[in-house]
């Protein structure tokens, strides 16, 4: 039975990350959103604080004799960081989205080789490149190719909307080794940033998550060593691709946690506005209606948290969680839209204040949670396929 009470180590870790979000992210959040730039000091501060936090977390877990719970800890961290600023949180140095495929698909040698670079004293990032112009939800038609030439793979193709794509040291790039085999031909490759033939194209100007870097990547005869194919040639079956996509079961609850963090920030700011900034003369019946709405939203926040915690906990227990991961992402992704829209509406009257600026930013940030890591429609398909396995849902 899932236990919804945090251990001492988990609580201490969450409080630590919350403090980091409060001190390092909130003060620069609005300015980074406006300029789409992040000061370099932010990267160094976050690297320092997270290394210290990770060491303390490991010590406390060991003292309390807790089993490995990387998904639960990551989920707690994502919610707090997104409460600080979700755009900035994607830019924190580390392997990021490159880590799950390396950990789940890489051999022990590949894991050691590729992840060790993130342990030195410099700043490093990772990225995952799946989406192409015209290929997002349905990757079967992927057009990026990988051809083996002696001891090297030659990658050709075009990816877009890649988070941290222009600054990543390693880009897990999905390409097909045989277009005629659709999904079965798709493999993950590790492409080091700066490899000749890897060209960084446009950096997107976005409505929300503006501090997050979203890049176009072009591969023109980009050569990488043969052993940069994750999962090896023996995985050249549908099962291999499914396993690679299975990393989404770990990352979707994290995206749900990020949505939850922004939704909670907007909710808290609205409650604060109602108690401190409500214009004089606001009628009692309007105030009562707002209180009732906030109470309902509070319940929905708790429901989203339950779905996210359950999916992350299942991932740690190695219990298959595709349905639950999609539910958590779909529910939190819808709720963030609802809460941020309500926050903008409720706080519309009165003076323009910093609270309102934050709320408007979170409203813009919210939309992407309906798009990346699988749109809401795709989550519903995943859930339906798991609920009705005998029905052929395309
Ligand atoms: C800020 C941002 C960051 C991103 N970061 C990354 C990243 O780091 N790496 C990466 O690889 N990608 C990234 N993406 C891309 C993102 O994952 C895709 O945009 C998303 O998967 C949707 O794909 P698409 O844009 O091609 O839209 P499409 O797949 O073309 O979808 C368009 C519409 O059709 C609907 N649709 C599609 N298929 C079906 C179906 N079978 N049934 C019902 N409806 C359907 C969708 O729900 C959507 O409403 C990012 C996107 C954004 C905006």
TrEMBL record:
Annotated Acyl-CoA dehydrogenase/oxidase N-terminal domain residues: 8-116
Domain Acyl-CoA dehydrogenase/oxidase C-terminal: 239-387
One Pfam family of this chain: Acyl-CoA_dh_1
Keyword Flavoprotein: yes
Listed Gene3D superfamilies: Acyl-CoA dehydrogenase/oxidase, N-terminal domain, Butyryl-CoA Dehydrogenase, subunit A, domain 2, Butyryl-CoA Dehydrogenase, subunit A, domain 3
Acyl-CoA oxidase/dehydrogenase middle domain location: 127-222
Entry keyword annotation includes Oxidoreductase: yes
Keyword entries, A-Z: FAD, Flavoprotein, Oxidoreductase
Matches recorded under InterPro entries: Acyl-CoA_Oxase/DH_mid-dom, Acyl-CoA_Oxase/DH_mid-dom_sf, AcylCo_DH-like_C, AcylCo_DH/oxidase_C, AcylCoA_DH/ox_N, AcylCoA_DH/ox_N_sf, AcylCoA_DH/oxidase_NM_dom_sf
Cofactor(s), names only, from the UniProt record: FAD
A GO molecular function held by the record: flavin adenine dinucleotide binding
Sequence similarity: Belongs to the acyl-CoA dehydrogenase family.
Protein name, entry field: Putative acyl-CoA dehydrogenase
């Amino acid at each position: 039975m899932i236990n919804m009470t945090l251990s001492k180590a988990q609580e201490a870790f969450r409080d630590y990350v919350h403090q980091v979000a409060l001190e390092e992210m909130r003060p620069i959040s609005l300015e980074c959103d406006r300029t789409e730039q992040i000061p370099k000091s932010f990267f160094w501060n976050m690297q320092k604080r997270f290394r210290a936090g990770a060491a303390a977390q490991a010590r406390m877990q060991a003292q309390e004799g807790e089993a490995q719970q990387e998904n639960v800890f990551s989920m707690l961290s994502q919610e707090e960081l997104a409460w600080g600023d979700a755009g900035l949180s994607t830019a924190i140095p580390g392997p990021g989205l490159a880590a799950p495929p390396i950990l789940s698909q890489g051999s022990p040698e590949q894991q050691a080789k590729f992840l060790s670079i993130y342990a030195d004293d410099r700043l490093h990032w990772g990225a995952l490149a799946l989406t192409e112009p015209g290929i997002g939800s349905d990757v079967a038609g992927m057009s990026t190719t990988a051809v083996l030439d002696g001891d090297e793979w030659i990658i050709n193709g075009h990816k877009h909307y890649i988070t941290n794509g222009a600054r990543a040291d390693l880009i897990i790039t999905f390409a097909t080794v045989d277009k005629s085999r659709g999904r079965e031909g798709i493999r993950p490759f590790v492409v080091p940033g700066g490899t000749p033939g890897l060209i960084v194209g446009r950096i997107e100007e976005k409505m929300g998550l503006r501090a997050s870097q979203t890049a176009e990547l072009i591969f023109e005869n980009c050569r990488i060593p043969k052993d940069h194919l994750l999962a090896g040639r023996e995985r050249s079956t549908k099962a291999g691709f499914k396993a690679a996509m299975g990393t989404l079961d770990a990352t979707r609850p994290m995206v749900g946690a990020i949505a939850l963090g922004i939704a909670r920030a907007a909710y808290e700011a609205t409650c604060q506005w109602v108690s401190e900034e409500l214009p004089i003369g606001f009628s009692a019946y309007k105030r009562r209606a707002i209180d009732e709405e906030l109470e309902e939203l509070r319940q929905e926040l708790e429901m989203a948290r339950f779905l996210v915690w359950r999916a992350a906990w299942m991932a740690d227990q190695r219990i298959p969680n595709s349905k639950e991961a999609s539910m958590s992402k779909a529910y939190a992704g819808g709720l963030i839209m609802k809460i941020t829209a309500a926050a903008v509406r409720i706080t519309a009257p009165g003076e323009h204040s910093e609270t309102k600026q934050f709320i408007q930013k979170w409203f813009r940030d919210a939309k992407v949670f309906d798009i990346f890591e699988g749109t809401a429609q795709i989550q519903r398909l995943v859930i339906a396929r798991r609920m009705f396995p005998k029905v052929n849902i395309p």
